[in-house]
Amino acid sequence: MSEEITTQSPVRLAVIIGSVRHERFADAISGWLLSELAAIDGLEVDPIDLADVDLPLQGTRPGGTRTAISDKLHAADAYLVVTPEYNHSFPAALKNAIDWHFKEWAYKPVGFVGYGAGSGGIRAIEQLRLIFPELRATTIRDAVLLNAPWTRLGPNGYEGTEGERGALAATMTELTWWARTLRAGRVAEQVSAA
To answer: Which of 40, 148, 168, 182 gives 20 to 30 Å between its CA and that of 9?
Structure first.
């Protein structure tokens, strides 16, 4: 590795914003989320907004082609996926971004922030939990579910509830534990393979 990674090194967290709609609530959610994450010690947060990434639907070659976000995904110790629930599932752009990459996801943990009407995005998250293990990624149990979040949009943006902040704290505690544990395993494996 080009830099020494220790147990005290910050966790590099890629926050993947999965909605690419022109008029989307993801901007309000991600604004709140990034503000909350900035207050957590020991994190280096790198937002990846899929609306800003050109990943064609044709020509996916996992592991064979570098994309505009390959380096960011590779550098991450953990992922926090922000997904709406569209038609009881997650956006096609998010699946496309997952499919464009392969090695980047391996042996890293994935957490979720979901939002939607009624379900808080749980159906989208449950489907994503089926996909990531195929890429050797570990999905964590805790998640943040934002039920009809547009009802809590104030003059300063999205206003999370105490329960949502608690869910985020629990999610980040679990996600950073897995991130450090799996990073130690990846580092040890590189040393033994050298």
So the answer is: 168
